[in-house]
Amino acid sequence: MKTRDIVVIPGDGIGPEVTSAVQRVLEAAGASINWISRQAGLTALAEGSDVMPDDTIEAIQAHGVALKGPCTTPVGKGFSSVNVQLRKKMNLYAAVRPVRSLPGVPTRYENVDMIIIRENTEGLYSGVENEVTPGVVMSMKVASETACTRIARWAFRYATRRQRNKISVLHKANIMKLTDGLFIRCAQQIHQREYPNIDYQELIIDAGCMRIVQDPSQFDILLLENLYGDVVSDLCAGLIGGLGVVPGANIGDDHAVFEAVHGSAPDIAGRNVANPLALLMSAVMMLNYIAEEQGDADAGTVAGNIRDAYDRTLADGCKTRDLGGELGTDAFADAVIERL
Ligand code: NAI
């Protein structure tokens, strides 16, 4: 593949461990990447910067693509979430999280294959909260026609490109008539006017969650507003082996940041036990994005080779502890490299 500058943000907690494991696999697979290293989160704060420093944002703007480890958001007043800042500042409005059953990872269901598409810039993540009067606080849920239409169109276009044929919107428009009402109205319009051939359904989110855990095989693409997407992503991760195996992408019109769904896992940080697979899968999504958006077919070939290698690694029973195995972070990466 053509050599590319890609920003890497190792992040906090288990971030640096899983990031360096993933970089080793990518190098062994022949991904030709010139890593531009930048900081965010507690690591940036310790160096005297903001949790999301300007030079990190500028590097992503300059190079277009980033691979990001998880970042800890410091608890306390005055810190807004690293991830929320990043997604808003870069207008990374579509979060994409594929959830699929993996070979060698037995779970209750064997045939899970869903893609969660989450609106990434609005909803209750608007950060507009205030104390109305002592003892009474308020948080504002924001929905705009522009953002709701944009994510719906993105989801239907994604479904078409990936030969996926059903989109399910989970919502609570029976209670939040204006905000969630707008979200489903925009999705309905895009479906009817632009993509009538794709199956479309709406489910009230509580009943929808029950149906997901009863029979995930009936779902294909899930389209959700911000908070619901966050919660349902972890719920779906639980169907296929947990947070160690769910990758993610945050995509805008001009830039994309790839990161695992999991956080910085401070409880296991620094012990070489974290599962690097979710970030490795995110890196595969990144290579596929480069193949599709930048027309580099070789990047897609490298992505396919890595995916085959980690599927074979798992099928051979080589797993980290979160999946019931015994391998550490580095040993798992070595096992994938052996199978490339
Ligand atoms: P978490 O995802 O870090 O951890 C939840 C549980 O899953 C823990 O028991 C952890 O050990 C386990 N786990 C997570 N990733 C794992 C992996 N790769 N391998 C094995 N086990 C893994 O969620 P938590 O504890 O709620 O958040 C910790 C910090 O991470 C917080 O500061 C939070 O704000 C931040 N966070 C950052 C995210 C990001 O940067 N994208 C996303 C989610 C949380």
Note the run of SSEs as H and E: EHEHHEHEEEEHEHEHEHEEHHH
> Numbering strands along the chain, what is their spatial order in the largest sheet?
2-1-3-12-11-4-5-10-8-9
Q: Name the helicity range.
A: 40-55%
Question: What is the gyration radius calculated from CA atoms?
Answer: 20 Å
What is the CATH third-level topology name of the domain at 1-96 and 242-340?
Isopropylmalate Dehydrogenase
CATH class group of the domain at 1-96 and 242-340: Alpha Beta
Strand content: 15-25%
Number of helices: 11
Alpha carbon gap, first and last residue: 16 Å
> What is the mean pLDDT?
95
Q: Architecture of the domain at 1-96 and 242-340, CATH level 2?
A: 3-Layer(aba) Sandwich
E-strand count: 12
Largest sheet: 10 strands, mixed
**Low-confidence segments:** none
Helices and strands: which structural class? alpha/beta
Find the CATH superfamily of the domain at 1-96 and 242-340: Isopropylmalate Dehydrogenase
Describe this structure in words.
This protein has 340 residues and is an alpha/beta fold. It has a domain at 1-96 and 242-340: Isopropylmalate Dehydrogenase. It is built from eleven helices and twelve strands. It has a ten-stranded mixed β-sheet with strand order 2-1-3-12-11-4-5-10-8-9, with helices on both faces. It has a two-stranded antiparallel sheet with strand order 6-7. Helix 6 links the parallel strand 8 (166-171) and strand 9. Helix 5 (145-161) crosses helix 6 and helix 7 (205-214) packs parallel to helix 8 (226-240). The model has no long low-confidence stretch (mean pLDDT 95). The structure holds 1,4-dihydronicotinamide adenine dinucleotide. 1,4-dihydronicotinamide adenine dinucleotide is lined by residues 14, 70-73, 83, 243-244, 259, 262-268, 274-275, 278, 322.
